[in-house]
Amino acid sequence: MAQEIAEKVGCVSADRYAEIVAELRKLVETTTRAQFTIGDYALEIEPMREVGGQEHSDEMFSVKKSLARVAEDVGLTYSQVRRARWTSSRWPKDRRQSGVSFTVHEVLAGIADERERFEAILNPPQPRGRWTADDAKRRVGRQVDVPVTPQEKVSAIHTLAQDEEVAVVVTGDLLRRPGVVAQVKPEDKVRVVEELTRDDEVAAAVVPRFLHRPAVVARVAPAEKVRVVEELTREDHVAAEVTTGLLRRPDVAARAMADDTARHQVNHAQVERGRQAREHFEENSPIAPVIRKIDRSVEFLDLVTACHAFVAAAGRVVPGLRDRQLGDDEQSVIRENCARVRATLDWIETAVDTGKVDMDGELARLLQGE
């Protein structure tokens, strides 16, 4: 039973199939002669205007009008007559090959070089030893009807997927096949991902998935990591949370504080936070007035303590200068510092007497050692 099925072509036996093919070849031969005859007559009515079949645009209207009239009078379409005329112009009668269909002649007519064209039809592909329509299309670089090679199949898919709706469905189906995706080149995968994530909502859903894959994050260049973090922390509350977490890591905190600007900003933030907390306390706390009185007492005690510390230090150090002669430079330094002390004492007395603690420019420069 299996042998009987193998010997059939479609619903007919192999012998019957051979008989049908022989009859059809005779009909194709007859059809080929008929189509060349149509082309020859069309050429007689409207000869080609230029060598190679390219005609001036200002002559095309009259040519089309004549060919359309012929087509209408004999019951053909304009395109059939036009194609027959052009094919006949490319194949002089002595170059037309018996046993080769008009379709093959028409396809090979696309070979621009006349000598190459005439040689090509005499050398059909092996091992078949005869021309088929698809073989002719391969010869001139056109898409075949029955693709065989991977490249031909790819071309066929591209042609079928020119419609965007079809392309969408095909792409989705292919991306669901792991074996197909695995063979796509890395650069093409990148391009596909970029195209698929142009929509912000899609990109927002995809990016977190990548960031959860340590192996992916590890391969990102340091500069790109920095840029990603900067983009993700544009919102202040996000940046605050991230920064807090990072500064809890000793190595990170140490490297961050090595930056003068960062350190200054941290110190400034601490001072500002303290000021804001104090202002909030003074404005809202019911015990703020009592605390302010205590603050004043503390300031008084601090000032008394500072004076006492100075007097005690001087009483301890000055006796040590007995019988010691200081050099000129040393005396100069001591005198400068004594001037600062006198200015500071004057400033303290003024503050105590008037309550004004502002210092003039000269005093400020003196205290700063300028």
3D structure, described in words:
It is built from 20 helices and two strands. The relative contact order is 0.02. The longest helix has 32 residues, at 14-45. The mean pLDDT is 82. The chain is mainly α. It is rod-shaped and about 140 Å long. The chain has helices at residues 2-6, 14-45, 57-74, 78-90, 102-108, 114-120, 133-140, 150-160, 164-175, 178-182, 186-196, 200-211, 214-218, 222-232, 236-247, 250-257, 260-284, 288-317, 328-354, 361-367, and strands spanning 8-9, 12-13. Among the domains are: 2-146, no CATH class; 295-324; 326-370. Strands 1-2 form a two-stranded antiparallel sheet.
Spatial order of the strands forming the largest sheet = 1-2
Characterize the overall form: rod-shaped
What's the average pLDDT?
A: 82
**How many strand elements?**
2
By DSSP (H or I, 4+ residues per run), the number of helices equals 20
Regions with little confidence, pLDDT below 50 for 5+ residues: none
Give the class from helix and strand content and strand pairing: mainly alpha
Sheet-strand content, in percent, reads under 5%
Distance between the termini: 116 Å
The Cα radius of gyration reads 49 Å
What helical percentage do the residues reach?
over 70%
In N-to-C order, the SSE pattern is HEEHHHHHHHHHHHHHHHHHHH
Biggest sheet character? 2 strands, antiparallel
